[in-house]
Amino acid sequence: MPDLPIPTLATFAVYLAGMLAIGIICYRNTNTISDFILGGRRLNSLTAALSAHASDSSGWLLLGLTGWAYTSGLDALWMIVGLAIGIYLSWKFVAARLRTYTEQAGDALTISSYFEHRFEDDSRVLRVVSAIIILIFYTLYVSSGLVAGGLLFGEVFGIEFVTAVAVSAIVIVAYTFIGGFLAVSYTDVVQGLLMVLALVAVPLIGLYAVGGFDALFSGIEAKEPALLTLGRQTGYDAATGAWSAGGAFGLVSIVSSMAWGLGYFGQPHILARFMGIRSAAQIKSARRIGMTWVIVSMLGALLVGLVGIVFFEQPLGDPEKVFVNLTEAVLNPWIGGIMLAAVLAAIMSTADSQLLVVSSVLTEDLYRTLVNSKASDAQLVWIGRLLIVATAIVAFVLALQGGSVLGLVGYAWAGFGAAFGPLILISLYWKGVTRHGALAGIVSGAAMVVLWKQIGTPFGLYEMVPAFVLSAVLVPVVSLMTQTTLPSAAATARIDGFEAVEG
């Protein structure tokens, strides 16, 4: 192992100690299963917004998106636009209604329990099926975070991959185990602020280093003019370090890139922030804070990738390390350590949320529902903690298989977006959804994602698109065919009063 960079090591140590301290403080306020899963529904608008989007962004923002911008140039904008639209619409059309309904519907703590209450599913099939889907895709999602952590520690400290992934897993599990939802949410605020600071400072300093925007664009054009053409595909060969122009970035590619925005309607860790905010009245201010953070951060990530194209005379063998490499090159080790801690923040802020959701599902939707309905809050909280450890171990094993951070995230993102997104949207606006329609939407969305991926993503179309469309069609079609199983008026009456609480 090479000599460890002391300034960076010290910065990381202080950062990690701070995250653990927050976990310990939150431990004192985590007494019930509601506290552990949703923080007692007492997040303010700032905490809810930054936690929602820090937990959403993960390593794909600082590693995946920056790497895509490095290899594809301005065509990374299609994903950014799609994500921004999806974020806004999810805050606008889902957040307030879901917050209000889940509290009134038996204080539903998870998306699975929301489905059970909304559709009066006494069979509990909806709850169990949705819980299984969450377990499958979140285990993949957590593994992507551990891969990203492995890349970071390996690059910065020269630690071999297995050890680096293990270090990432231990750190993330520690404070999530201790403090539950409140620890996750409050650490996300710190992590979110650190991430946006890094995504403003690093690209601007890098831009100055290459000579400003004129020098940046002329330098990119010298490498490959297609990188600056919105709507023109660009290929990158890591072996030779050369970019090459392809054909037009056609409709399928544009739709696939922008379809990432559809995922926001069905991500359980984001929906949990909507459910955990103090009141629906705080949704509007949370939406404004969240949108500001997201737009600034994603544009910063795009600029990091573009600056990297010009700054590095020797093209990168691994484009997903462009942020790390640029940070080490343009900043002194102490400041660079803070910026690199932002990558760790991005990884941790998502992995901790995902571990908590998996633990919540196993504890609330499976253990208490199917095994021990009389378990005390103290028992459930400790079971939840132990299941966090178990999930992390499984994700660790999967992470050792390696893979692209963005590729792993994209698969899990599509799984949740297609399985739950259409049903969440439709069920909050239309009383006519039946439990059969709900089940058809969930199963078809998840199954199509897996099938589309397994047959090699035909036409290059992102699996989110056909799966989301299929689910969105089957929810109303099957519901209309099974109107004899409509939920009672009591279960749907709340929908009439939603307009009064929407931001």
CATH C-level label? Mainly Alpha
User: Could you list the spans in which at least 5 consecutive residues all have pLDDT below 50?
Assistant: none
Q: What about the largest sheet? A: 2 strands, antiparallel
What's the architecture in CATH terms?
Answer: Up-down Bundle
Percent in strands: under 5%
Descriptive notes:
The protein is mostly helical and 503 residues long. It has a single domain, classed as Sodium/glucose cotransporter (Up-down Bundle), CATH 1.20.1730. It is built from 18 helices and two strands. Strands 1-2 form a two-stranded antiparallel sheet. Helix 6 packs across helix 14 (377-399). The chain is globular, with a radius of gyration of 22 Å. The termini are far apart. The model has no long low-confidence stretch (mean pLDDT 84).
